[in-house]
Amino acid sequence: MGMGMGMGMAGPAPGAGSRHDGKRQHRRRFRSRRATGLGPRHGMTMRASIVGGSGYAGGELLRLLLGHPEFELAGVTSRRLAGSFVHFTHPNLRGHTDLRYSTLDELERCDLLFLCVPHGSAAGDIDVYSGLAPRIVDLSADFRLRSSSAYEDWYGASHPAPEWLDRFVYGLPELDREAVAGASRVSGVGCNATATLLGLLPLLEPEPAERGLVDWRRGVVTELKVGSSEGGASSSDASHHPERSGVVRSFRPTGHRHTAEVEQALAVRGVEAAGRIHLSVTSVEMVRGVLATSHLFLADAANARAAERELFRACRSFCRQHPFVRLVKNRRGIHRYPEPKILAGSNHAEIGFELDPGTGRLVVLCAIDNLMKGAAGNAVQCANLMHGFSEVEGLSFPGLHPL
Ligand SMILES: NC(=O)c1ccc[n+]([C@@H]2O[C@H](COP(=O)([O-])OP(=O)(O)OC[C@H]3O[C@@H](n4cnc5c(N)ncnc54)[C@H](OP(=O)(O)O)[C@@H]3O)[C@@H](O)[C@H]2O)c1
């Protein structure tokens, strides 16, 4: 069992004993894991390891797996920090684990391997990684695109292992939950692609007839406002505090790589999206978070009132099917639309919309925490599905307010 210190840990089941019994059990588990740094193996507990655990996505995965009741942390690698305690780089985990980083060579075979390494290196070493575990969740961009020529177009290099592309499933459960559940290798999803897609997919719910609501031929323009942790833990000139603090800086007004994933995913849902998805990414003053604001046009601008009813129906239907997506659309108050700040540490995506009846312009909004639904949280959600666990296991942390 996980040691139960993670934020997503559920409380004891009703009738399972007093609160104090629960706390005592929790302390016992905590001590036994501290003794070894790994924790005991129980019946069906799955042993999971992380490659690239010293980075931001790896740190978030560590936090989630330490609180997960079905996964046990078997190992975590860092080339630079092998031998150091993981709380050296992830101080929020101090006292929660005595685990130390290892080298890749020291990693033992396990049930599930998470890859949190930069793009290019996941594919470069995929033969080694696939020898370490029967199941892999790769957070990098290496196995997201189905075509090696699309990879070359968007990433500017030939794919290091094109024969592996069709062995991975694109890991967005809200796009194809069954495919993820049946896969042994899953790619993560770009955080900007996640926010864009979770805003757009409800427009394709549930019957093809509803697709007539939006004129997809007019294209989609999506403005993404992103926090600094998207760039990972390594510093650069752009992330130097005096340069990054307080900015509203156009980072990639055109040509963002996640465009390719969004087009590919929409094509799965029958939308001819190639060349019609336009992403612009702006760095803003946040550490975590993405807000995607997509602009589209109704097919029939004269019927905006009917379209609004359809949109409500489609969004509610989408949220009912997907436990980590919720609709935010209030008439009053300050939290009327999706807001990344509310989601820090949560695996939820918030979606919302507004219609301009005069012009037929539809504004679709989606907010996520890039390190959770945009990376580690989604990876655990996929891992839950791949192992037949409840999809929401270990992911119940509701976020903090105020923050
Ligand atoms: N940050 C986000 O919001 C986000 C969202 C979605 C997906 N992702 C993807 O998730 C992956 C990790 O992102 P991140 O933000 O956590 O990056 P990061 O903070 O820069 O961490 C990268 C990690 O990879 C390790 N590493 C670097 N090169 C390696 C190599 N050749 N072989 C093995 N390990 C290597 C580094 O550790 P050592 O140098 O210590 O070995 C470090 O632990 C990336 O592919 C990224 O695109 C990130």
Radius of gyration: 21 Å
Strand arrangement, major sheet: 8-9-7-10-13-12-11
CATH superfamily of the largest domain: NAD(P)-binding Rossmann-like Domain
Biggest sheet character: 7 strands, mixed
* Number of helical regions: 11
The CATH architecture classification of the largest domain is 3-Layer(aba) Sandwich
Might you state the CATH topology name of the largest domain?
A: Rossmann fold
* Helix proportion range: 25-40%
What are the secondary-structure elements, in order, as H or E? HEHEEHHEHEHEHEHEHEEHEEEH
Q: In total, how many beta strands?
A: 13
Written overview of the protein:
The model is unreliable at 1-42 (pLDDT under 50). It is built from eleven helices and 13 strands. The strands form two sheets. It has a seven-stranded mixed β-sheet with strand order 8-9-7-10-13-12-11. A six-stranded parallel β-sheet has the order 2-1-3-4-6-5, covered by helices on one side. Helices cover 27% and strands 18% of the residues. It is an alpha/beta fold and 403 residues long. It has helices at residues 19-36, 56-66, 121-124, 126-130, 148-155, 173-181, 191-200, 241-244, 258-268, 304-321, 376-386, and strands at 46-51, 71-77, 112-115, 135-138, 169-170, 185-187, 220-226, 249-252, 277-283, 290-297, 325-327, 349-356, 361-368. It has two domains: 19-189 and 374-386, NAD(P)-binding Rossmann-like Domain (Rossmann fold); 193-368, 2-Layer Sandwich (Dihydrodipicolinate Reductase, domain 2). The chain binds NADP nicotinamide-adenine-dinucleotide phosphate. NADP nicotinamide-adenine-dinucleotide phosphate binds next to helix 2. The site of NADP nicotinamide-adenine-dinucleotide phosphate has 31 residues, from helix 2.
